[in-house]
Amino acid sequence: MNVKQNTLAALLVLGIGISGCNTNDNNLISQIVNKKTEQNKTTDNNKTEGNTTINPNPEESTTIDPNPEENNITNNDTNDSINNSVTKSNFNNTNNSIDHIIEDIAGNADGRAVTAAEINAIDGVSRAINGVDYTAALQAGTFADKTNPIATEIQTVVDVANAAAAADAAKAKAIGKITTYASDDTKLAPNVQDYLNAGVTGVTADNLDRVNGALHITAIGGGAVNSTSAIQGIVNNMPASFSKELTITAPTLTATLVSMLDDNHGVNVGGSIASNGLLVKVPYHADSSVILNSFTSPHFTIDAGNTSNNESGVVVALHWGNATLPAGDGYFDAKIVPVNGSNIYYARQLDITANGYIAATLSYPTDKDFTMGRLDLKVIPAIPDRSFNVQTNGVYEHRFLYLPVTNPITGRTWLNNNLGAEYANINSSAFNPTQQATASNDYKAYGSLFQWGRKADGHELINWTGGTAGAGKYGTTSTKADDPSGSLYIIEANAQHDWRVNRDDTLWASESSPNNVCPVGYRLPLNPNEANDGENEWYVETNTWSTKNMVGALTSNLKLVRVGIHDGTNGTVSGNSDLGGYWTGSAYGVNAHTMDFNSNRVRTNNVIFNYRVDGNYVRCIKQFTMGENDSFPTNITIDNPSLEANVVSIHDQTPYGSAIDIQGVIDSGSNTLILSIPYTVSNEATTLPAYSKTYTIATADTEDGVADIVATFSWSEQLSLAVGSGTFNATITTNVTYNAKKLDIEDDEAGKVVATFNYPTDSTGSTGTATLKVLPGILDRNFNVQTNNKYEHRFVYMPVTNPITGRTWLSNNLGAEYANINSSAFNPTRQATAINDYKAYGSLFQWGRKADGHELINWTSGAAGAGKYGTTSTKPGRYGQISTEADNPSNSLFITTPSADWRVNRDNTLWASESSANNVCPTGYRLPLNPNEAKDANNELYQESKTWSSQDRTGALSSGLKLTAAGFRKYNDGIVYYEGINGDYWTGSVHGDDAHGMAFNSNMVNINSYYYRARGFSVRCIKD
């Protein structure tokens, strides 16, 4: 018996779902069970004579009513004998329905299911509905005699099957609603009844919001939320309560698992999670001592492709147990553990140069409202030294591999070992990238001693033979050099502080600094304010240690070894000295900042003896990443929470000209995308840490089917940003060349988002979103409209966004040559290169007039252009009437007039909005407006011009719009004037008989002027 039969049988036994049927009233049943003959038909108005129409107003097949309101017709007029059985012998006279019913009860050997029409044809039986499987119900039904079923027995089967089908439909609908919301929390949220309909228990009005939140975070992490069991698992694992005094202070966490295989370098590290779990440090704040209730997250099934043995069904969860947490800031231990019989997770191994992958995403509550946080289990190879593939002295001396380690309180990520540590050396017998120092004098964790600001050229390498015994691998020299050509350690007996001839404070100042010795994405910690404050990254780190001394350094997550120094005056090495320690990237006069400690104290602002010529340890910190909000300066905000970068990629076999074939490309070289980020700094100048976020582009979104292309959105460290507003650049690059999927201009007009990046916007944890979109371009409104019996408006534009205002415009003027697909200059990503770049000039429109050809200009140079068609002095329309004729001249001639308008009767609405009758901009775009006729927030060209570097044509060209000076077409003769000198642009707003525009030249910008509507001006469209 199948699942449906089991369900039906159970419902039959329990009598569930039967309505309107009294099984004990055999007298009534016997009256309505009569054979049907041509001479004596029932008066059931729900059945036609041929029994082909069951109900003149049937419910839709997707909606099943278990209790339909139907009339059971009692036939008292028949003279036939009353019979309580519907037998084969008394039924065959009319049709063979009963044969099918009896055959289906017996098991449906012929494979033909009885139909709803056949069931309803039986006297005393109704409500059978198309789409319900009554065969299974008949097999599961209860019959006194299966070869002679009676009407009441058949009706019971019908009602129970209807009820089960209705329940199944309600369940499917509820699960669909829950699944949809889980993937997109802007959709309608499920309610308590939806969960009940889905067969899920334990959801109440009190916990509904947290359950919905858990569903969403599970779904976006790749977890299953599409079945009753999966949803029930999420509900079951929600903690019963969360103390109002407790807050988990990390809304995002990353747990790192190392798994790599690189035969070229002899590296084989199999990352795995066994039953003892992978430790995760969870930071919290408690107002008072609190009880932490145990928690197990919704389960996550790891994709078989992310296991080393292609194993399916590996399931993991985040778990923590009951604990008492003291008041204040701290962290507690949680673990990622295999569940549901998964004894161990073996991670897919990666090459050293791979970017890693997210194997699982797990959710956890962060506060009393059950705001859900997100934990990514990320599998990575170890992090190669910046000089991993760089030879020094003819050999590879920097084959070091490190791992990230995160301070759960600060959220900052560091390397787990000093640069050059023996544990990180793949050529050493001690190599173990997960190993950190076991004691303060564990010399295998000591590593290299760098002169401040110098490259990893070999001078830093130390041969350690004990906790207090070491010597430089190479010799010394007293010859200074700004860029040493060898590996000799430069000493300076006169203590003039530097190994260089010319001091340079920028060598280690940021991740992009020329001599940065840290792996890509890492740099030295900074102390930009030369103080023990929140910007001093060593100070922030040491504040989380259990004790401010050597013991605290070792017991911290960094497992720091005691200080050492390579003396810059004589070249001797000490592994036990208070004279040096760990470098920062910040300079101090002729010296540089360090952090050092001994058995009694920690110093994080020591500059007295830190000569740049001395050799100290380097421990690298990761550039600012999402979740590290404590490191985002409090006095800076990023002012645009929504950014978009576009790459054009087109393949269009157009029927109206030659095929368009443009391969959009992104890489890390000349095809890097640049986004302008607006910011505001208050109070005092500040440094914004660098930021980076990656996204793996789907193979289906590539033109050549290349997998694992990783796009990176990033900005470099922005040093000393001044008080006020400004912009800096971010970039989008890819690890290998990305050939974007080519799109059809018309079929794929909306484009395709292929990557999404989050980025922080302030110190409170607010975030913005940058999207990478492949576009085929934005079609001209008249792209498929003929004028003069040909397609003259085959223009394709691109969007461009002003990062300060957040407003999106077209990248070129309407009609620009760069936008013309039939031009040899066609390149929709191209904008003006000069103020007189005539290929960017475009059309010159009379205000309010459609793109009917009058606006087209034949440009032959930056100073010469003429209308494509002639002129006429005949205005359209008749006096006293505003008509279709008046709005639409019947030809492409430029209308000349001695007065303001090209029309007979003025109409102020023609360009007033996106939906205006004569709007010439692409769908979704319109002309900019100046509705208040003032220089205010509603004047969109004014707001645009305020962001220019200068209020003249130089500022117009250097802006993101790259505006040109095409001049204007005069109203009374149709001749083009001031090409390459003046820029004249219409708005959609009017002023009396005139219309508002913007004009600029070499001296000024005129924003609030108005001009005759009969003039021909350029048009640049803004997104509605």
Question: Would you kindly provide a written description of the structure presented here, covering whatever features stand out?
Answer:
It is a single chain. It is flat, with a radius of gyration of 38 Å. Mean pLDDT is 83; it is low at 1-95 and 626-630. The chain has 1024 residues and is an alpha+beta fold. Helix 1 crosses helix 6 (134-140). It has 15 helices and 67 strands.
Could you provide a short overview of the structure?
The protein is of the alpha+beta class. Helices cover 13% and strands 27% of the residues.
Overall average residue pLDDT: 83
- Number of beta strands: 67
Continuous helix count: 15
Instruction: Characterize the overall form.
Output: flat
Main sheet properties = 6 strands, antiparallel
**N- to C-terminal distance:** 61 Å
Low-confidence stretches: 1-95, 626-630
Radius of gyration: 38 Å
Strand content: 25-35%
Structural class by secondary-structure content: alpha+beta
Portion of residues in helices?
Answer: 10-25%
